[in-house]
Amino acid sequence: MNKISVLLLLLVALFAGNVVVAQTPSQPAPITAIRAGRLIDPETGTAAVNQVIIIEGEKIKAVGANLAIPAGATVIDLSKLTVMPGLVDAHTHMAMTYKEQPENNYYYLTYVMESTPLRAIQAASNGIQLLNAGFTVIRDVGNNGMYADTALRQAIEQGWLPGPTVIPSGIIIGGTGGQLWPTPEMYKQHNIVYPEYLDANSHDEIVRAVRENMLFGARTIKLCIDCKPWGYSVEDIKLAISEAAKGGCKVEGHVQTPEGAQRAIDAGIYIIGHGNALTPEHHRQMAEKGIFLAGTDTPYTNYRGTENAFRQTVDKLRDAWEKKVQLTYSTDFDYWNERMKDEKTGEWLSRGDLTIAFLDTWKAARIPAADILRAITINGYKAADIIKERGPIKPGFYADLIAVAGDPLTDIDALRRVQFVMKNGMVFKKDGVMTPEKFFHPGPVRIPSGRYTR
Ligand SMILES: [Zn+2]
Questions:
Q1: Distance from the CA of 401 to the center of ligand 1, in angstroms?
Q2: How far does the centroid of ligand 1 lie from the alpha carbon of residue 424, in Å?
Q3: How far from chain centre, in Å, is Cα 219?
Q4: How many angstroms separate the CA atoms of 64 and 393, rounded?
Q5: pLDDT per position as a tens digit, 292-345
Q6: Residue 102 preceded by cis peptide, ω within 30
Q7: Which end of the chain is more exposed for a tag (fewer CB within 10 A), N or C?
Q8: Per-residue pLDDT tens over the stretch 16-46
């Protein structure tokens, strides 16, 4: 077959596909009206009472005090609850869980013992647990085997299962070795473990690595800035930023040394991941440049952490807040152990419970509730670079919202009691119980374009 007839066939196939879509009877988008007893705007840290939110299909159409409820609308009564935007974990890992048994918390072994497909299924479960806790957006930044993270994003976007909006990074990009100290067998043969990091040393390799991740569905790029003594220079980081921008991606730098932090700041990185190595001077510069911090501020609990590390984490978070750094709520969650149970009931803690438990660190740092709310919503949407589509409860935005008992503006722990979750205008949780039926669909709800990338 010559090239022209192949092209013609392709065109016919595309056209046929469009005809099928056009013939699908178009039903009017369902209208939902929510009565909100209290509606929080985390941007301003204020609340309005007795609001009505009108939702048409997936998006918010109107918000106000005395809105007429359209005939035929489904009315949801949240008049005894506080409604607010969904929550954001700005740095987590959905498809990596290292354990005490069998791998003795040694995460190299998790990579060896658990396949990407197995980890992708775990990621799907984690996504449902997070959505149940009110997290409607997550940034999933690496350690997902061979792209379990972008697969999860595609599966949720296609409507196969419920889950947060996933902003995946694909494989973490680092200089030789990444975060690992591989054996020569691992490094040279790349048969085991190596999917976890893309080695990129020269400028050509950095460009190639960024492009590969975007090709396979990444929505953000993650660099190991200083995981090895040879780390990335300011020029290297700038190159990654400009290449990522071509695919609409912002760059997060994993930072673990003060020198690495300085290089990331000098290069104008968008987000710094992990706050441990940052000094008050770094915080000052980050605030000046508007760089987001995903501090991954681990609380001290009976299942994780030490008192000493916790005190340092709290002090760093407090200083970053005092310096007015753009803080996001972030966990770096990627572990599990047998002690993760509710101390009172003895029930297992879900991935959602474990994620919202990071509030303990923010409370210990004496961050005001309104500022925690901004970090866990608006700043998260900005760091995820989706603030133009999701987050604010305003006309034109996707209807992603939650409701809690109590008032999180005065008692931040109210966020632990999420009673209602709506994602894309569909109810996922009501009266404290998951009602996910509408989220399960046997085929793509959205027609995928190309290879599901931008
Ligand atoms: Zn991490």
A1: 26
A2: 27
A3: 10
A4: 11
A5: 999 999 999 999 999 999 999 999 999 999 999 999 999 999 999 999 999 999
A6: yes
A7: N
A8: 433 333 344 567 889 999 999 999 999 999 9
How many A from CA of 332 to the centre of ligand 1? 4
Give the distance (Å) from ligand 1 centre to CA of residue 298: 12
- Judged by DSSP in three states, 363 sits in helix
Q: What are phi and psi of 349, to 5 degrees?
A: -80, 135
Strands (E), 286-354: 292-294, 326-328, 335-336
User: What is the rounded CA–CA span in Å between residue 414 and residue 420?
Assistant: 13
Q: Which residue has the tokens 């980081």?
A: 237
Architecture of the domain defined by 87-383: Alpha-Beta Barrel (3.20)
Kindly tell me the burial class for residue 167, based on how many C-beta atoms sit within 10 Å of its own C-beta (0-12, 13-18, 19 or more): buried
Helices (H), 216-276: 234-246, 258-267
The ranges assigned to domains in the chain are 31-85+395-439, 87-383
pTM of the model: 0.92
CB 127 within 8 A of CB 163: yes
For 126-168, list the strands marked E by DSSP: 135-140, 165-168
Alpha carbon distance 8, 267 (integer Å): 47
Structure tokens at 104: 């003795």
Q: Rg of the chain's alpha carbons, rounded to an integer?
A: 22
Q: What span, in angstroms and rounded, lies between the C-alpha atoms of 406 and 373?
A: 14
> Which amino acid is residue 21, in one-letter code?
V
Could you give the 3-state DSSP secondary structure of residue 179?
Answer: coil
Answer CATH for 31-85+395-439 from 1.10.10.10, 2.30.40.10, 3.10.50.40, 1.10.1040.10: 2.30.40.10
Cα 439 to Cα 428: distance, rounded to the nearest angstrom: 8
